[in-house]
């Protein structure tokens, strides 16, 4: 094993024993109110190698692996007020995504701040913890629904005729992400037909859909150890270009890095979710 590779436990998913579709409630309280367990499936813990690719960042892109590390220092530094984030961080992130991807149009549709607080219940937007389950945020069907939900209704049908993606822009905030870093699975190592399982995600006002991921020993996991405040990663969750020439998505998860110092500050991060369009319509349409 390379000095830049760690062994750690990753949490994959097992299908429900009764053959039903996997389902997860976004909040514990919502599951209780509906008389249901938070999930109807179990975790499948597996020991996996995760390679630190620092110094090799240029080898990975949203087109080949499904993720891309970039250098960028945000002008917004506080990340404590959602309205300020939308007013200040959203515009710079739109321009950044356009620059990195070459897209014509970017629509940000939400963000999540995660703060690792051991023992705290992940039960609201204000208490989101790092996710320890291997997953993909979107399926092809939910990605299409996102276009209808967030793009102007008069151009949404036309936008769907062109290539589009959903990309998460993830970065550490406050301090480097040494604790509970993010692992990303190279798309070239997954089996599209057998590894991904459509999973209902139940919100208070609607149902969404994500991919849970089944264990596959061929998976190649990567991370960037100690991501700093001037580093970010683009995580592709969907690409409508499905001719085999590019990565379609990237399974990902938070994980425990055994090299993390015991006194490392607890991880704090933000992820923006973006619709990224390569259309030929006027940008003010």
Protein described:
- By secondary structure, this protein is α+β, with helices and mostly antiparallel strands.
- It is built from 4 helices and 14 strands.
- The strands form 3 sheets. It has a 5-stranded mixed β-sheet with strand order 1-3-11-8-13, with no helix packed on it. It has a 5-stranded antiparallel β-sheet with strand order 4-12-7-14-5. A 4-stranded mixed β-sheet has the order 2-9-10-6.
- A hairpin with a 4-residue loop joins strand 9 (196-202) and strand 10 (207-213).
- 37% of the residues are buried.
- The mean pLDDT is 94.
Brief overview:
With 285 residues, this protein is of the alpha+beta class. It has helices at 28-33, 82-101, 140-150, 156-159; strands spanning 5-14, 23-25, 42-52, 67-71, 105-115, 135-136, 164-172, 182-185, 196-202, 207-213, 221-223, 231-239, 252-254, 268-277.
